[in-house]
Specification:
Strand content: 35-45%
Number of domains: 1
CATH superfamily: YVTN repeat-like/Quinoprotein amine dehydrogenase
CATH architecture: 7 Propeller
Shape: globular
Helix content: under 10%
Number of strands: 35
CATH class: Mainly Beta
Length: 404
C-alpha cells in the first residue's frame, strides 16, 4: 500500500530550533553560477558543463598537511566528454567507464586492469555493477550489460536518454531515464520485470539522480518536486512517497526543486538533498521524516554514523548532525570551485574540484587536513574500494589513494 507522507507533519517538534538555517544560494548553477535547465524533449546532447561562471574560483591558500595521502596506483579509461562518470566499488574491485564506451574492471589493491570492454556506441551513463553484471547506458536509452568476464551479455532499451548510472543487484538492473521512468530489467536476460514513472516536469536539472537499494525490499530514488520514492524491488509499486522539500517561488525557474545525487542509506536512515530545497533524512522503512534543513545542493550527500556531509550550490561544504540535522560546521574556503559530491570517510570528508584538487577536511571541524593535485577536473564523488580511496577525473584517469 502506498503511503504519501507529508514531511512537515512528520518532522519532530525539536526541529524548530533557534539555530540559524544555512543560507540557500538562489538559482545558482551546477558547474558555475548559471542554473543549467533543460526543457524535456529539446535537451539535445549538451551536458552540465561549459556554462560561463559568474564568479572566479576561490583561490586556494597554503595548508599544513596534517594527513599523509599516498597514491597507490593509477589507471585510465575514456574521457567523460559532456557527461559525468563515477567509479563504482564492489568489494575490492572498481568499475569505471568513459563516454567513448570504454569500461574497465580494476583491482583496487594493485590498480591492475583485470578486464576491459568496449560498448558498440558512445555512452552517457554508467557503470553500474554488482561484480557479476556491469551495465552502461546511452543517449538513445540503450542499456548494455556485460558479464563477469567483460563480454556483452544483452542489450535492452529504457525508452529515453539515460544520465544516471544503472543500479545493479538483487537479480535486477534498474535504469532511470531522463523522462522520470524507472525500469527494472532481469540481470540475467535483460527482460523487463517492472517499470514506474512520474509526470515529466517542464523544467528540470539536466543531471543524473541516483538510486539505492534498501535491503532486499526497496529501490529508493528522488524525483523533481523534491520527492523521495521507495519502490518495491519485486513489483515496482511505490511503498512510500515522501516530500523531502517543496517548490518555492513564483517563476518556474525559482520552483525547480529536483532531488540531486543519490539517496544514501545508513542504518535505518535515508538521507538526501535537493536543489533550491532541503537536506534531510527519513526513516528507511516508513518514509517518515526525521529532520530537514533548508539547503540547496547540486550533487547530493554522504553520511556516516555521525555526520551528513553536503556541498551547497556556492561550493561551501557543510556537515550536519546525522541525529538531528544541526549544523556541526561549514567550510566556505572552496566556494565557486565546482565541487564534487563529498565522501564521509573515517575522520575525513573528501571532496574534489574542477581544477583537479582533492581536498581532505576534518570530519570533526571542517579544517583542511590534506590536499592532492590530480590531472583533470574532478566532478564525480570519490568512492572507497576495500582500503583504497578511488577517484576518477574527467579526462579519464583513475587514481587509488591510501590515506595514512
Amino acid at each position: 500500500m502506498m503511503i504519501l507522507n507529508d514531511f512537515r507533519r512528520s518532522m519532530p517538534q525539536t526541529m524548530a530550533t533557534s539555530q540559524a538555517e544555512p543560507p540557500v544560494p538562489a538559482r545558482r548553477g551546477i558547474f558555475g553560477a548559471v542554473l543549467t535547465l533543460a526543457v524535456l524533449g529539446t535537451l539535445g546532447g549538451c551536458g552540465l558543463f561549459g556554462s560561463k561562471p559568474a564568479h572566479e574560483p576561490t583561490p586556494l591558500t597554503e595548508i599544513k598537511q596534517a594527513l599523509t595521502v599516498k597514491q597507490a596506483w593509477t589507471a585510465s579509461v575514456g574521457k567523460a566528454g559532456a557527461y559525468s562518470f563515477a567509479p563504482v566499488a564492489v568489494g575490492d574491485a572498481v568499475f569505471a567507464a568513459g563516454a567513448n564506451g570504454s569500461i574497465v574492471r580494476v583491482d583496487a589493491a594493485t590498480g591492475a586492469t583485470t578486464w576491459s570492454a568496449k560498448a558498440d556506441t558512445s555512452i552517457t551513463a554508467g557503470p553500474g555493477s554488482d561484480g557479476e553484471t556491469t551495465v552502461v547506458a546511452t543517449h538513445k536509452g540503450d542499456v548494455i550489460a556485460f558479464d563477469h568476464d567483460g563480454k556483452q551479455a544483452w542489450k535492452a532499451n529504457a525508452g529515453s536518454e539515460v544520465l544516471t548510472a544503472p543500479l545493479v543487484g538483487r537479480g535486477l538492473v534498474v535504469v532511470r531515464a531522463i523522462n522520470n521512468r524507472v525500469t527494472a530489467f532481469d540481470a540475467g536476460t535483460g527482460s523487463v520485470r517492472w517499470s514506474y514513472s512520474q509526470p515529466v516536469s517542464t523544467l528540470t536539472l539536466r543531471t543524473g539522480t541516483g538510486m539505492t537499494f534498501v535491503g532486499d525490499r526497496a529501490v529508493v530514488t528522488g524525483f523533481p518536486g523534491g520527492k523521495l520514492v521507495a519502490l518495491d524491488a519485486n513489483t515496482g509499486n511505490p511503498l512510500w512517497i515522501t516530500p523531502l522539500s517543496y517548490p518555492k517561488g513564483v517563476t518556474e525557474v525559482e520552483r525547480v526543486n529536483d532531488v540531486t545525487g543519490s539517496p544514501v542509506v545508513f542504518g535505518r536512515q535515508i538521507c538526501g538533498a535537493s536543489f533550491q530545497g532541503r537536506v534531510g533524512c527519513v526513516d528507511a522503512q516508513t518514509g517518515n521524516g526525521l529532520w530537514a534543513r533548508d539547503f540547496s545542493s547540486p550533487n547530493g550527500v554522504s553520511q556516516d554514523e555521525r555526520v551528513v556531509a553536503a556541498v551547497n550550490t556556492d561550493g561551501a561544504v557543510y556537515a550536519f548532525s546525522a541525529a538531528d540535522g544541526s549544523t556541526l560546521w561549514q567550510n566556505d574556503k572552496l566556494k565557486y570551485r565546482d565541487l564534487s559530491a563529498p565522501l564521509a570517510l573515517g575522520r575525513v570528508v573528501v571532496v574534489g574540484d574542477k581544477q583537479g584538487y582533492l581536498h581532505f577536511l576534518s570530519r570533526d571541524n571542517g579544517d583542511f587536513l590534506a590536499r592532492v593535485k590530480l590531472s583533470g577536473a574532478i566532478s564525480a564523488q570519490p568512492v572507497l574500494a576495500g582500503q583504497t580511496l578511488v577517484v576518477q577525473t574527467r579526462d579519464g584517469n583513475i587514481y587509488g589513494f591510501r590515506p595514512e
